[in-house]
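User: quick one, sequence for these tokens?
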């Protein structure tokens, strides 16, 4: 029988931007709790909540100064316990972020560690002595880079005369997973939230945990984003990481309820991401494959990315799919067309793709509304990477973190105060209140597809077979499981396209006849952007940007 996380539809919440309950302009835990009815109504099964821990907020929560607390802007521990209990009462699972690659530079561990080479926790972090070259200039230990500062990842610590490593920002020093005391302390953090009853973790940058013991420089390459012109073979993906994953898996498996581990594997190689399931499936339950987040609107590109992911997975491993998250531009922007109508049409096809593929789907908050990528003025930027790379808007992350759009009122119903980021200009017509009552809205389409997926063994758990023969404009596949067979046909172009030949044969075969003429009396429409539910499929011609799910 499939595990709950294999059947589930996840919904990612960036808590600063979801709902503000107290008017300070920043979303909080009580705000999430106040919108649980909405989440249950649209049909999602599990929430992934991004960090809400105490933090100086120099990287907005991913620089943690206390792994077992709640930042006051989000509430307190009682707020979290109420949210968790309320979510569980509505049948919603809750997964939280586990950020254990680094701490804040204000974490008590690092404050102690940087004070002296003799400090008990000094070896809990990664250090290299400061050395000078023949010209008397300080020399960095190697060429590793800080992802969000676009500079060397080595930062000076005058108290000890050493460099410390921070491969995101200078405010996020890397911990030393080779130190057994550090490892034990981190495992206590893992147990803390599981003891409170969370249903698992989304594990931040799993493949960064351990660095090359010899601190060798990375070779160069020509990829700017996300590789920053390096092949990251020495500062990521070290063999010891797999042992850490297995140890955390043992901890998770010791708790009842199938607690899940979902790893962020920050790379574009699906084989590398897939390896973190473990050859014996004893590491992560699911690993994110980020390749789709960098793909253009192209049937060939998207299909190729999906098939490479399926092919890379070890036998028995379960895939997942995501089109957007808090670190990459929203897919409605990446997949945009020549005008608003074409962009809207593409967003419907993308939703159908996400919710009918084999694997657990992850929806990013507001995606179901068609929330646009925010255009943030320089004075309103908050993201350190966005500030550093201005005016290259596509590299900053504020645009995908704008406030959730609840209604047409001031600040889109997100807050009674001034929102921490500006609300997208289209909030007055693209919001939850408007789209819940509009039968043709994108939200109604998501809800229709979610209902269909949850009612179908084939769509939730079944096999997948591609039927499009590599067509340049269409993606077509068969989902089968139990006694069900569904065909999904997606036209990704702005002109009518015939259903690819292999798909047409499947539809025709539903009537027990060899030929397309039999289809009109056979396969039934279950969901479509252009055809009525329950009718026969009829003509084997896909309209521009048509998405079709048919029983066959």
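Assistant:
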């Amino acid at each position: 029988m499939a595990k709950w996380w294999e059947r589930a539809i996840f919904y990612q919440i960036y808590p600063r931007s979801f709902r503000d309950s107290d008017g300070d302009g920043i979303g909080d835990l009580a705000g999430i709790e106040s919108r649980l009815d909405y989440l249950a109504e649209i049909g999602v099964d599990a929430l992934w909540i991004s960090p809400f821990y105490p933090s100086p907020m120099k990287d907005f929560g991913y620089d943690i100064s206390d792994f077992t607390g709640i930042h006051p802007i989000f509430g307190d521990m009682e707020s979290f316990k109420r949210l968790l209990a309320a979510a569980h009462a509505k049948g919603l699972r809750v997964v939280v972020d586990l950020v254990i690659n680094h701490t804040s530079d204000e974490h008590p561990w690092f404050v102690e560690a940087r004070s002296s080479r003799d400090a008990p926790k000094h070896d809990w972090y990664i250090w290299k002595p400061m050395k000078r070259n023949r010209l008397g200039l300080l020399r960095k230990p190697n060429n590793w880079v800080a992802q969000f500062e676009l500079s060397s990842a080595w930062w000076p610590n005058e108290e000890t005369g050493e460099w410390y490593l921070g491969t995101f920002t200078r405010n996020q020093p890397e911990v030393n997973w080779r130190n057994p005391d550090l490892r034990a302390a981190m495992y206590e953090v893992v147990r803390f939230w599981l003891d409170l009853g969370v249903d698992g973790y989304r594990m931040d940058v799993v493949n960064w945990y351990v660095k090359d013991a010899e601190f060798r420089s990375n070779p160069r390459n020509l990829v700017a984003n996300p590789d920053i012109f390096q092949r990251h073979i020495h500062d990521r993906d070290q063999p010891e990481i797999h042992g850490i994953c297995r140890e955390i898996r043992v901890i998770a498996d010791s708790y009842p309820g199938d607690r899940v581990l979902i790893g962020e594997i920050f790379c574009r190689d699906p084989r590398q991401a897939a390896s973190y399931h473990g050859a014996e499936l004893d590491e992560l339950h699911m690993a994110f494959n980020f390749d789709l987040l960098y793909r253009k609107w192209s049937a060939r590109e998207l299909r190729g990315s999906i098939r490479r992911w399926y092919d890379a997975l070890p036998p028995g491993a379960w895939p997942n799919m995501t089109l957007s998250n808090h670190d990459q531009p929203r897919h409605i922007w990446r997949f945009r067309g020549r005008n608003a109508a074409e962009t809207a049409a593409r967003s419907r096809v993308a939703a159908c793709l996400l919710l009918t593929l084999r694997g657990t789907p992850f929806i990013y908050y507001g995606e179901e509304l068609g929330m646009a990528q925010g255009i943030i003025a320089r004075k309103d930027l908050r993201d350190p990477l966005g500030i550093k790379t201005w005016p290259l808007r596509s590299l900053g992350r504020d645009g995908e973190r704008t406030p959730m759009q609840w209604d047409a009122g001031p600040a889109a119903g997100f807050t009674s105060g001034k929102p921490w980021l500006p609300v997208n200009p289209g909030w007055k017509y693209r919001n939850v209140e408007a789209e819940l009552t509009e039968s043709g809205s994108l939200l109604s389409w998501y809800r229709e597809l979610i209902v269909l997926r949850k009612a179908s063994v084939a769509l939730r758990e079944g096999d997948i077979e591609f039927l499009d023969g590599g067509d340049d404009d269409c993606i077509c596949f068969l989902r089968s499981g139990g006694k069900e067979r569904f065909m999904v046909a997606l036209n990704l172009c702005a002109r009518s396209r015939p259903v690819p030949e292999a798909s047409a044969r499947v539809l025709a075969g539903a009537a027990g006849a060899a030929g397309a003429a039999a289809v009109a009396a056979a396969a039934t429409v279950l969901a479509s952007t252009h055809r009525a539910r329950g009718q026969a499929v009829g003509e084997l011609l896909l309209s521009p940007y048509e998405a079709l799910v048919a029983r066959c």
